[in-house]
Queue: 2 jobs
Job 1
Amino acid sequence: MRLEGKVAIVTGCARERGIGRAIAMRLASEGADILAADYCRSIPEYPDAKFGQMAELEGVASEIRKLGRRSIAVKVDVTDEAEVATMADAAMKEFGRVDILCNNAGGGVGGGPVIQQTLDSWNRTVGINLTGTFLCAKHVAPKIIAGGRGGRIVNTASIAGKRGSPMMAAYSAAKHGVIGLTRSLALELGAFKITVNAVCPGFVETQLLEGLINMIGSTGNLNREQVLETFVRQVPMGRIETGEDVANVVAFLASEDGGYMTGQALNICGGVEVH
Ligand code: NAD
């Protein structure tokens, strides 16, 4: 599964225990150079929503350099087209090529029942998960195409992209959209030998999940352990998921071994039932 000589852009990879960080570290350990990207700011209107910050992102790039790979940290808002274009240019300037794009930035703001959700929180959540994936593909795919060597796009969707999620309708709708975008892009980019797939994690023990645990806990009057137990009860493999569980599959999709698989949305969820 070695990725020597390849260059990967991984969005949303700053946070400790995050899926993106696990993906960036795994691709680097397979030999890829990495442009590590994250939001690196906060949204004052949504103080509860937590985002990766620049110091954490620099830490990821520095850990990757310790593995002997090249890496730069780039601040980007994936919902801002100009910033995304600048990120794609930064990869070309630093590395001279791009082979792999991991659209992992995601999450949400607001939430709660649809009948109470504000249009602003809906738009921002769809923006982070779906529009961001579109913009990064729009600006990075031409760089991969220009290399003429083919490449890989791996989008982080969710099992919430395959089933309804009460209190998280915008997130669920956006992740369903990510899967639709993945399938459409796969049809468009096959001619350039670029595969496009989505991974659909289940309950991954990251800081993002902590936010969900708090929300469910306060609504249902449950403590953290009780909420975690309700998650684990749905998982035939009997444990909560790690970022590495997801990164293992992303590494396969990014490799030569994954070269004839495209347009798929793979469940990596310990057997949680989804269709
Ligand atoms: P995380 O919070 O560690 O990662 C999400 C990252 O996206 C953060 O670093 C955040 O700063 C970044 N981000 C958010 N908005 C951004 C923007 N506008 N521009 C750039 N970056 C932005 O949480 P995670 O659980 O590791 O989530 C990673 C991905 O996995 C997300 O797409 C999430 O939806 C998905 N996912 C998570 C779970 C889970 O249980 N944790 C399950 C299924 C899918």
Job 2
Amino acid sequence: MGKRDKKRREWLARKGDHERRALYQRAARLRKAAAEPARRRRKGPSFGEDEEGGFERLGRRRSGSLEEWVERLRAEEAPGSGAPQEPELVEATTDGTVIWLGPGRARVLLDAGGELECLLCPEIAVTQRSDLAVGDRVAVSETEEVARVEAVLARRTALSRLDPGGGRPIERVIAANVDAVVVVVATRTPPLRRRLVDRFLVAVERGGARPILCLAKIDLLESEPALDELLETLGPYRELGIPVLACSSVSGRGLPELRAALAGRTCVLVGQSGVGKSSLLNALDPRLGLETREISQSVGKGRHTTTASELLRLEGDIRVIDTPGIREFGLFDLTREELRWYFHEFDAPAQSCRFGDCSHVHEPDCGVREAVAAGGVAEARYDSYQRLLASIPEASR
Ligand code: GDP
Ligand code: ZN
């Protein structure tokens, strides 16, 4: 992002929603006027017409990006200048949600209704893989020939994964504005991996979404006590306030509860391959017909071959973002200090650690380790913490 872009984003962030919207509308109107033939433009706003430079030139062939016009408005804004108020042109830009994203293109579900196939403005296209994700709220401009995503609006939440790339790892936002992340684990095949769950929980909280734990394939358990026993081991999560649901896509048990937990929300399902995510989605809405393991194996090709990301709309007002990268989302740029704050059961016992910056591993008089010994903090969670800590290089301090 250029310095100018950064300044503009900060400037926009200081404005209220209404004012920001009005600005984009005004910029879009000016942009449109610049694109019109000169004859018609005479009647239009005079903004930019006395300019020799960039915008007029751009205006002859293409009108420039909306962000460029917003930038102009920013430059114009001076205290007490009393810039002439443009009447608002309501249809100039519309807001919507990105429901599908492919190379250089997006499909946007407009707030006003309907879907629009859009190109991405050059600034966004260049940084697409880090700057735009399914679920993002965007401002879209539309002319007779083309619809374009002009700006990405502020995100409520963002799930990211670390892309090692060539050199320095880059944060890739893989889903935006997600309300709930369902961490799916199976009763067996594959066996429950608690550390993976803990890792997901940290990443979910960092991204600002709400976690839900879903124990899938409960039909594979031989008895009711076996289910109770397994749920008991998930007790520490329940104590942390994380909803724990038990489901089977085969018997249908627990599906109403899952449906209720997700209604009206945008969510994402994460978990190891084979835990039954696609089967759960199919069970929630049979119209989806997502590929599950048997099907993909029977036709002898790999799963999740799609490179596009999309937002699925399920029965019961449930929105699910399905992207190839979602299954690997990890811990971006997490420091060793930060990690301990995501293990909330440490919060209270940490009050009695001798050192304020106690890492709860080797220090004497550690309240957390005492709590683990006394059974107040689940050993399995403490074990996860230690292993996660060990996986973060010292250098990131
Ligand atoms: P994903 O990789 O997480 O999307 O998992 P899939 O939905 O493809 O399921 C993996 C395998 O588990 C498939 O063979 C499914 O038939 C099976 N499976 C999924 N859900 C259930 C369930 O609730 N009960 C049982 N018995 N098998 C299931
Ligand atoms: Zn400590």
